[in-house]
Design brief:
The chain is of the alpha+beta class. 50% of the residues lie in helices and 12% in strands. The strands form 3 sheets. Strands 1, 2, 3, 4, 5, 6 and 7 form a 7-stranded mixed beta sheet that branches. The chain has a two-stranded parallel ribbon with strand order 8-9. Helix 3 runs antiparallel to helix 4 and helix 8 crosses helix 9.
Length: 518
């Protein structure tokens, strides 16, 4: 049995080894793809506690520095920021240099007190600047070789520059600089802040006038009370009126009083700070402000620590002016695509522009805008009138009351006075037709009448119109006779008349006369 197992294993092992040789690179590629995909998501996330960046390190070097304890240095001397791009069709992952300057990684030498490292860094920066806009690449040794030779020759007297090596040896007593390169992720560096400060310093040294906003951050505040000219925007909600020349407010999205105040403060102050918890409409407000200043012919820069906020903000911008916005996110390719699309949209618009037609369209829009403002002002005036009528005190029988109090009285008295369905108002024609004295007289008369009040509208006949006593007696006798006849008819003793028409009465009268004369 052992021999059969050994024979089966010997037969199985060669094809398995052949398959494993083909599968091993495939598994490595799958693992690398998954790592790069997860890294791309993390690079674009703003929730990361420690944001990362992907860099291409060139000029791998190693050195064991003594300060006085040994410190191992094994790091590239030049780094270039990279971006991860996924092809939307093939889903292939690509790594490409970003449109950022390469950076020298000499901070470790400075921290260890290497003499003259500042001069070396300035000289290396000069070489970097001399190459122009071309991107560094380890596959083009002639681009980085002068820089690596400069660093190797001036940092240490016994340094060795190994042009043919692709990997740096373990750190030793001699500095070894190679052409090796590596791609790795690291916590996002802060050297861009230093670069910004250096550029700002150069601008200040050139004597260029500083904007009022940044200048206020580095100058002590004044003690004088600032007086601002009032600013009036046409079409403010609620009919707000401010002194000063009216201006247009170009807000494409619904807005409130706070957004109006922000624009007013921006118009007369070098800067405004606005804060608020999530979900309070800050993105909505920024979209309105961007649209307003774009319509005013100004440029706006919006910064954020993460990409999702910028993407949401760009979606808030109206589609008609969205081509004028460019989002410079972590992917330079997408930013350049948006930049190119923006330029093409502007060129297309300008190429089809008819100055005369556009002038007429602008004039028509201004007329329509003035008409809309006039209608809005009329509506605001009407609202003010309604509000004044509702809030002003009304005199009712000498008592000052608000409309709310009067409404409460009507509701409370509905059950008691609901029978009175006449429509009355406080106009003079609906005032009571009598005074207090007349009302007191009516009240006394009502008390005296008591239960006889129901006969107030009855009309008593004149004494001459009343019947005489003989006539009343005759009527009484007639009524008694009629009662006797009705009783006899009910008992059957007397047959009833066939009908009670005038003809029957006339025939009965004639029969009675005939019988009386017989």
């Amino acid at each position: 049995r052992r021999a059969r197992v050994a024979h089966a294993l010997a037969a199985y092992l060669p094809p398995w080894q052949e398959w494993a040789a083909r599968e091993r690179p495939r598994r490595q590629v799958i693992t690398l793809y998954a790592d790069l995909f997860a890294l791309k998501a993390r690079l674009e996330s703003e929730e990361a506690a420690r944001p990362l960046e992907l860099v291409w390190g060139m000029g791998l070097s190693s050195w064991q520095m003594r300060t006085p304890a040994p410190v191992d240095f094994h790091y590239p001397l030049i780094t270039q920021a990279l971006e991860i791009d996924i092809d939307p069709t093939s889903h292939a992952i690509g790594l490409r240099p970003r449109q950022l300057d390469a950076h020298l990684e000499l901070d470790a030498f400075a921290a260890c007190g290497v003499p003259g490292i500042g001069d070396v860094e300035r000289a290396a920066r000069s070489l970097l600047a001399a190459r122009g806009d071309s991107t560094l690449s380890p596959f083009a040794p002639e681009m980085i070789e002068p820089i690596l030779k400069l660093i190797a020759g001036q940092v240490s007297a016994d340094a060795r520059y190994d042009m043919g090596a692709t990997q740096a040896p373990p750190p030793g007593e001699r500095l070894v600089v190679t052409h090796g390169w590596v791609i790795f992720a690291r916590p996002r560096a802060t050297h861009f802040l230093i670069d910004d400060i250096a550029r700002l310093k150069d601008r200040v040294d050139d004597g260029e006038a500083l904007p009022a906003g940044p200048l206020s951050l580095v100058t002590p505040p004044g003690s004088a009370v600032l007086e601002h000219e009032p600013i009036a925007f046409r079409g403010l909600s609620g009919g707000a009126v401010n002194a000063g020349e009216p201006r247009e407010l170009y807000f494409p999205l619904p807005y409130n009083r706070e957004q109006e105040t922000i624009v007013q403060q921006l118009a007369r102050s070098p800067g405004v700070t606005v804060q608020g918890p999530p979900g309070t409409g800050k993105t909505h407000t920024i979209a309105n402000i961007i649209s307003h200043y774009l319509a005013s012919g100004k440029r706006i820069l919006v910064t954020s620590k993460g990409e999702p906020a910028l993407k949401v903000l760009q979606e808030k911008i109206p589609e008609s002016i969205r081509p004028l916005t460019v989002a410079l996110l972590s992917g330079d390719k997408e930013g350049m695509r948006q930049f190119q699309a923006s330029i093409e949209a502007i060129i297309h618009t300008l190429s089809h522009l008819n100055p005369q037609l556009e002038t007429e369209a602008i004039a028509a829009c201004r007329v329509a805008l003035d008409r809309a403002h006039a209608e809005t002002a009329a509506i605001d005036t009407r609202i003010d009138e309604i509000a004044h009528a509702q809030l002003a005190a009304v005199s009712v029988d000498g008592v000052e009351m608000r409309a709310q109090k009067m409404a409460e009285l009507v509701i409370d008295g509905k059950e008691r006075f609901g029978w009175f369905d006449d429509d009355l108002s406080l106009a003079p024609q609906h005032a009571p037709p009598f005074g207090d004295e007349q009302a007191m007289g009516l009240r006394e008369a009502r008390r005296q009448l008591g239960v006889d009040l129901v006969y107030c509208n009855a009309r008593l006949p004149e004494a001459d119109a009343l019947p005489t006593p003989p006539a009343i007696g005759h009527l009484h006798d007639t009524l008694l006779a009629m009662r006797d006849i009705e009783r006899d008819e009910a008992s059957g003793a007397l047959p009833p008349l066939r009908a009670t028409t005038p003809d029957v009465f006339a025939a009965a009268q004639a029969l009675q006369t005939a019988l009386a004369g017989a």
